[in-house]
Known about the structure:
The longest helix is centred in the last third of the chain and has 16 residues, at 212-227. By secondary structure, the chain is an alpha/beta fold. Helices cover 45% and strands 6% of the residues. Strands 2-1-3-4 form a 4-stranded parallel sheet, with helices on one face. The protein has a domain at 2-69 and 155-207. It starts with a strand and ends with a helix.
Amino acid sequence: xxxxxxxxxxxxxxxxxxxxxxxxxxxxxxxxxxxxxxxxxxxxxxxxxxxxxxxxxxxxxxxxxxxxxxxxxxxxxxxxxxxxxxxxxxxxxxxxxxxxxxxxxxxxxxxxxxxxxxxxxxxxxxxxxxxxxxxxxxxxxxxxxxxxxxxxxxxxxxxxxxxxxxxxxxxxxxxxxxxxxxxxxxxxxxxxxxxxxxxxxxxxxxxxxxxxxxxxxxxxxxxxxxxxxxxxxxxxxxxxxxxxxxxxxxxxxxxxxxxxxxxxxxxxxxxxxxxx
Length: 276
């Protein structure tokens, strides 16, 4: 059995399904949930996945795939982890509203105590938190990608034996995805062939669920518009706001507003602020 080690949100379950679907008997089952994740049940005969490193679970074999990423994946990784992992269905657009109720009992619960300690809040009592405080908390996680807590967890996936590394970016291009799947078949001597047409269909369905890709593109385009002094409306979720503030502070060496409840509505407002 192949074991896939990954950080929650980084498509370990879809890769697991793709590998098990080398067996044609699995293909009649679609793994997608109402949240667009690949957490639906089916019989696993070739591969299984888990957060082995994160939860310090021992591997049963040395047939391991590790899903890896780069520093520049930081925003995407954050959006994926908060937006898809565990089917928690966090409302990132209004993440500050009922924040305690949203994250309690999840792997992100430790953020409650970190925020309370840093900003003197009491999330358990107040439930909701000022948007500016939560934006600021996440902003510091985007100032140095190498120190981002989620990126660091991926980098913690270290092994004392050889593993197959699957680059996160290869999920988002069909040709690269099929190339990687082909390499997995070769690496682990899997005795099945790849039905490219069937995989094209299931991959297209998978990619249609990843709204975080467009969220990254929109955030990047907004930053470019600010650099070029162009007008662009802004309608961000809280993580996008935090990321943009971090990038702007690094580029313009000017602290972005802290206790700002309503974020900027367009790039010209940000450009004017940066002039002050």
